[in-house]
Specification:
3 domains, about 35% helix, globular
Length: about 400
């Protein structure tokens, strides 16, 4: 019990330290809060110097934004990544920044009109909330508290009910509404007891077929409790870091697939008591949920390895036409496109007519299953023999 109390007190102290330190960081630059990062200079030209100066991060997850995306920036801070993402997402896209710190939100909102005028459209908004509770709109809660301040035990019950009502009826971020969730060196600031909820919330708001791109600080070793209790190290993005293997496991446990370590700094950002802390960026995908269907699809793993294993435990052998479910086929085309050749069926099988996928892991797909048992087409050799004339236009 004493240990739980100490952990709770440390978590509360760390959270207060984060709020205070980033409030100061919104007023003047805190050099210790960021790693050196290169951004596309063309995308920085429209962003005011005050925002750039007071942005803190360890990577550039905005490079994974696509035109037309609805983007969620977790811990949006001064708004720099959100404004970069806005330019890539374009006029048909949308960017939502979520932050808990009022000072940072004020700085980010200060330049919305100015940036919109420079890029020619307004597609950015900033909302107040905790990234581990993306359903609760804290601005809406503040308005409710202004009308009925908490003054009694009965009021506490009303407050709990109001929070649940807000989450259910008017969530800050709706489930399955986001194409790309990105974050830049923020997940490590969340209290340890809430990190599982954090990943569950990220998974909840991501749409099927959507992605997450997270840049953060990780450690090569487990962090001792003494460092975790150091509020200064915690607010400095150090002692709240995930151990690097646990970081990847958290994405998998939340339900993401196609998880890739797309960036890992060779040199550590800091070393504390022999423990190395470095920046990484992880890209992951949310795939179709529900039953797996057999639609006569296959993939051929290209190599270079003799075989690889996916998140479901299926072993893919180099050069082998392997049967996959519709969910796996979709994932391979989005997350693993550079590693496989997709083999779609000649005649598409609608999902409404498909049978459950029951092939054993690693089963080969007979070519006739994809082509059709009655496939009898014959073709002649092309007439082109000159070098280059058969190249695709």
């Amino acid at each position: 019990m004493q240990s739980e109390k100490s952990s709770s007190a440390a978590g509360e102290g760390n959270e207060n330290a984060v709020i205070e330190r980033y409030a100061r960081g919104a007023q003047a630059r805190e050099a210790a809060l960021c790693c050196p990062i290169s951004y596309d200079p063309k995308l920085l030209r429209v962003i005011p110097a005050e925002i750039i100066e007071r942005d803190y991060g360890c990577g550039d997850p905005s490079q994974f934004v696509r035109p037309g995306d609805t983007v969620l920036d977790l811990g949006s801070g001064s708004g720099k990544i959100a404004y970069i993402a806005a330019q890539i997402a374009g006029k048909t896209g949308r960017v939502i920044g979520v932050d808990f710190n009022p000072a940072m939100l004020s700085l980010a909102r200060k330049y919305q009109t100015e940036v919109a005028a420079k890029i020619g459209f307004a597609n950015v908004e900033f909302r107040r909330g905790k990234i581990q509770d993306l359903a609760l709109d804290l601005d809406a809660l503040e308005r409710a508290l202004a009308e009925r301040p908490v003054k009694s035990v009965e009021d506490l019950q009303w407050l709990a009910q109001t929070c649940e009502q807000l989450r259910r009826q008017s969530p800050l971020i709706e489930s399955g509404s986001i194409d790309l969730v990105l974050s830049n060196c923020v997940l490590n600031l969340v209290n340890e007891s809430e990190k599982q909820q954090l990943f569950s919330e990220i998974f909840r708001v991501t749409r099927i077929g959507g992605r997450v791109a997270i840049s953060d600080i990780v450690s090569d070793e487990s962090i001792p409790d003494a460092l975790k209790a150091d509020a200064d190290l915690w607010s400095g993005c150090i002692s709240g870091a995930f151990q690097e293997e646990a970081f990847l496991a958290a994405f998998e446990e939340a339900g993401f697939r196609g998880i890739e370590l797309v960036k890992r700094d060779e040199k550590p950002w800091r070393v504390i008591n022999g423990i190395e802390f470095r920046a990484v960026t992880v890209l992951a995908h949310k795939v179709q949920q529900g039953p797996s269907l057999d639609r006569n699809q296959a993939v051929i793993y290209r190599g270079p390895f003799k075989q690889v294993i996916d998140d479901e435990g299926t072993v893919f052998e180099r050069g082998v036409r392997q049967a996959v479910s519709d969910k796996t086929f979709e994932l391979f085309q989005s997350a693993y496109a550079q590693h496989v050749y997709p083999v779609p069926p000649h005649q598409d099988i609608p999902a409404t007519e498909a049978l459950p996928f029951e092939s054993p892991h690693g089963a080969r797909r007979d070519p006739r299953q994809s082509k059709g048992m009655d496939y009898r087409e014959s073709t002649d050799a092309g007439s082109c023999c000159e070098p280059g004339c058969c190249d695709p236009a």
